[in-house]
Structures are given as C-alpha cells and as structure tokens.
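# step 3/5: fold
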Amino acid sequence: MGPTNQTHVSEFLLLGFYEKPEQQLPLFGLFLSMYLVTVGGNLLIMLTIGSDSHLHTPMYFFLSNLSLVDLCLVSTLVPKMLGNFLTHSKAISYAGCLTQMYFFMVFACLDTLLLTVMAYDRFVAICHPLSYVTIMSSQFCGLLVSLSWTISLLNALLHTILVMRLLFCTKCEISQFYCDLTSVLKISCTDTLINNILVYLTTGLLGILPFTGILFSYTQICSSILRVPSTGGKYKAFSTCGSHLCVVFLFYGTVIGVYLSSSVTQSSWKSSVASVMYAVVTPMLNPFIYSLRNKDIKDALRRFISRSAFSQ
C-alpha cells in the first residue's frame, strides 16, 4: 500500500457491540450492572481480607492482589464502552487506544501470573506442609507479587513501544469493543513481523508456561491428597484448592474461547461476546466463587458485615 494511504491516525473505531444501534441502551444497562457488581464484589473481598487478621496468610494475600487486578482489568475496558454507548460513538483516540491496550495487557498478564503463584502456594501448603511457613514467608510472597507486576509492566511496555512505530490505514476499524493488541496489529499498513514474533514468544512464556506450571502443581497436589488416609483430610485438602481450580478453569477456558472464536468468525459482535466472557464475566464471578466455596472467606465476610453494621 502506498504512502498516500498511510497516516499517523488520530483515532480508531471500535466496532464491537456497535453494529446494532437499537441494542445499545439495553447493553448499557447490562454492562453497567456487571461493572458495579464486579467492582463491589472485588472491593468487598479486598476489604474483608485486609480487615480480618485470620486471613493474613499467603493464600489470601495473593487473593486480595487478584481481586485488585480484576477490578483494574474491568475498569480499563468497561467505562470507555459505557461512554461510547451513551454518546452513540465508536471512536477512541490514538493515545486512548494505546493506553487502554497497555493496561489491558498489564492486568491480563498479571491475572495469569497470580493464578500461577496461587497454584504454587497450594502446592507448597499440601505437598510440603512442614516447610510451608519457612518457604512462603512474607518477604518471599512480596517478592513473587512484585516480580509479577514488574514482568507484566515491562511486557506491556515492550509491546506498546513496538506498536507506536507502526503506521495505520486511513480506515482504522477494530473488530473488538476495546483496543486488543492482535486486532490493532491486523489493521496496520506496515510490516508487523517483529510484533507478531513477540506476541508468539510472550504468549508461550507468559501464557502457556504458567498454565503448564499450574497443571504440574495440581498433578502433584492430587497425588499427595490421594495418599491422605482419612476421608476428612482429603476433603479439607480438596476444599482449599477448589475455589482456585474453578477460577483457573474459568480464566483459561474463556481465554481459549476468545482465540478460537476469533479464528473461526469475522463477526465483530460474536468476537466481542467471546471477549466479554474473559474480560468482564470472569472478574465478576471470581469473588462469588471464592466467597461461596471458601468457609474462611464466608466467616470473615460475616464478621466484616457485622462490624460494619454495629459501627453505624
């Protein structure tokens, strides 16, 4: 494509859910409700863990960080979508698009790394219980979370810098409801070979490798649990891992669904529905999964609500 068709664009168009104007008002109400539930649920988990000394353990330290990341993830995407519904606009500025893309990559990568760290925590707790306190010290837990943030920030920064060198066609339509890296690369008029190579490398290192680590951890956990002689002991061990396993399957299941749907359909509506499952529904359900399946969280929630009621 010639240079006359290339430009430093000032904005992109997010097609996403904007194909059907008559559905934008109902969708606004739906996504606003989901956003409020997500923010409220994750804030409640964070406040409950922070205010209850019984939950000041590595497992719940990682959970509070996961809730923070989930809250930030939906806040990166949903407010802009709600604003576009109200203004009947599909536009997002070039700077806004890159900013949204950067923070989405940061929090999506953090989700993956924190789930891996949580799996390692359960592996040490069940397979090496006598060494758990020594291994999972507060300093080591802080280091794991700090490393997760550092890796996620640097990974997103590298991708964003490489995108900034690209030129785009005059018709810049993104098939998603947000600025997704792969969607942005598809509409570039310049060579994206380096970008795509980096996407494949980071997907392997920060996506597939952590998932392999989670599978290995739970293989070892299941093997250890099956050797526990008492039924009560097995149930207790499984119950401490059940919530995390549900979140892992929900997270990776929806991620795989997004990429499978993008490869088989060109419809921006269908592709956006699949992305919503991963980027909006999963962060909304996580607090419910942990609060409904975890006795410690349920007890702490009751204590937190009781304290809040008496303090009024």
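# step 4/5: annotate
Strands lie at 6-7, 11-14, 91-93, 168-169, 173-174.
# step 5/5: archive (pending)
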